[in-house]
């Protein structure tokens, strides 16, 4: 049905439709993202015992962590274009099953070289999942509610670490010897299986576009399809629709640089926080078991999850985006190096929690920005390019942090680098912020001016 032939629908009914879609899609995608990040970063806990078994130095461990992003970077854009062509349902299912199988396979590596190969293959397999979901959400949710819903989806990022840390620690400590395997091998095995199962479920559960959603009433489908089509037309008129246009737009590369800074902080924290906590034994003469260390590591991520939800809702209420990315990024940049100068474990973890708040609060608002000027194939390629640059930080941060740790014997130098990189990304965003389209500042809910079917069952 053409949107010109549709009359307005009360905001409460529109909100009900959006809520129905959110309840259908967000929990499923959030669980998938939780598994995605867990399978990517659980090597941080494996490192507590794996390095001794495989003979890894901190530099070698950092290399293994970062090599994931080599395969990821090269296949990110092609994978997202494939998702746009073949549909999210098929492609997300394919990605999940593939990475789950590779994650299970890493349980059986027997040397640094096979670990390196496994991490590269895991990156190839995971490529396209996150930017694909970001693209997918632009097909389903109006702009006025998109940041808070991206926030609900992205809460899986800190929750993955908050829950994954004690889970991984418990498996390593208490299931050591299960199946005759070392605890870290059991961890990779157990945490890879749910990904395969959920990937199979995705084939049957997800729906590519609103017009295909049989789980919506006909009138609801028509309203959502017309609303999203109208938004895409608006973006196409003032932004880009082709792959070539997106690659030539300086805003894509600005966002890529900003995301590199955010990613640098995230991956340094994710891959080395367990090592930092383990280092408390020498710095503060403390003794924690593997499971106790995992519980301590979980604290900043749990706090970050709460901040993420609150901050994304505040951004939608105010309609402001640039400062909602820059301010938390600056908070993280300032606090991350300070943590290592605290005189107690509690003080260090309190400052690291502020860093986590800054990092995680910035993410959902940041991912709103590409949709302000990209749609269609341009969105598929542009979002993938931005995420690829962030993934490059995933190689640089673990490797450089590990190298500096080996070189200096302390985490301080590596965390100063993290702070500088994040500070630079915030300044660049503020400098170029006016080049992004201004967005509505009304309370984030569908408006009565939105098109709707003549009748909604």
UniProtKB/TrEMBL annotation:
It comes from Streptomyces antimycoticus. This is MFS transporter. It holds the Pfam family MFS_1. Residues 25-437 form the Major facilitator superfamily (MFS) profile domain. It is found in: Cell membrane. The chain crosses the membrane at residues 21-39, 59-79, 91-110, 116-137, 149-172, 184-206, 252-273, 293-311, 323-342, 348-369, 381-401, 413-432. It comes from the Bacteria. InterPro entries: MFS (IPR011701), MFS_dom (IPR020846), MFS_trans_sf (IPR036259). Keywords: Membrane, Transmembrane, Transmembrane helix, Transport. It is a multi-pass membrane protein. The keyword Transport applies. GO terms for cellular component: plasma membrane. The lineage of its organism: Bacteria, Bacillati, Actinomycetota, Actinomycetes, Kitasatosporales.
């Amino acid at each position: 049905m053409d949107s010109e032939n549709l009359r307005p629908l009360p905001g409460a009914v529109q909100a009900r439709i959006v809520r129905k879609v959110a309840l259908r899609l967000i929990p499923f995608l959030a669980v998938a993202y939780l598994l995605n990040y867990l399978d990517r970063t659980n090597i941080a806990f494996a490192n507590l015992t794996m390095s001794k078994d495989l003979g890894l130095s901190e530099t070698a461990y950092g290399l293994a962590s970062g090599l994931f992003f080599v395969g990821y970077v090269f296949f990110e854009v092609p994978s997202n274009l494939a998702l746009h062509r073949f549909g999210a349902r098929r492609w997300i299912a394919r990605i999940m099953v593939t990475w789950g199988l590779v994650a299970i396979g890493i349980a059986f590596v027997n040397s640094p070289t096979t670990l390196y190969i496994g991490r590269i293959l895991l990156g190839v397999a995971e490529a396209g999942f996150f930017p694909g979901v970001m693209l997918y959400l632009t097909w389903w949710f109006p702009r006025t509610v998109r940041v808070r819903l991206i926030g609900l989806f992205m809460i899986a990022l800190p929750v993955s670490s908050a829950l994954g840390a004690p889970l991984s620690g418990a498996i390593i400590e208490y299931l050591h010897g299960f199946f005759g395997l070392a605890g870290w091998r059991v961890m990779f095995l157990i945490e890879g299986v749910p990904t395969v199962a959920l990937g199979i479920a995705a084939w049957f559960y997800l729906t590519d576009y609103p017009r295909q959603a049989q789980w919506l009433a006909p009138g609801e489908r028509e309203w959502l399809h017309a609303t999203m089509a109208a938004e895409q037309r608006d973006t196409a008129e003032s932004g880009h629709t082709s792959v070539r246009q997106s690659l030539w737009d300086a805003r894509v590369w600005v966002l890529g640089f900003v995301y590199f800074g955010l990613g640098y902080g995230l991956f340094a924290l994710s891959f080395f926080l367990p090592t930092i906590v383990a280092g408390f034994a020498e710095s503060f003469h403390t003794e924690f078991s593997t499971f106790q260390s995992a519980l301590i590591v979980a604290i900043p991520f749990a706090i970050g999850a709460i901040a993420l939800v609150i901050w994304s809702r505040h951004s939608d209420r105010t309609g402001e985006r640039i400062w909602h990315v820059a301010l938390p990024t600056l908070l993280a940049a300032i606090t991350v190096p300070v943590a290592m100068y605290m005189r107690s474990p509690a003080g260090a973890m309190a400052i690291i929690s502020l860093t986590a708040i800054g990092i995680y609060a910035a993410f959902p608002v940041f991912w709103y920005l590409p949709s302000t000027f990209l749609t269609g194939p341009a969105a598929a390629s542009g979002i993938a390019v931005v995420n690829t640059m962030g993934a490059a930080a995933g190689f640089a941060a673990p490797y450089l942090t590990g190298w500096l740790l080996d070189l200096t014997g302390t985490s301080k130098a590596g965390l100063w680098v993290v702070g500088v990189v994040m500070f630079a990304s915030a300044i660049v965003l503020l400098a170029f912020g006016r080049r992004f389209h201004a967005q509505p500042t009304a309370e984030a809910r569908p408006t009565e001016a939105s098109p709707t079917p003549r009748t909604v069952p």
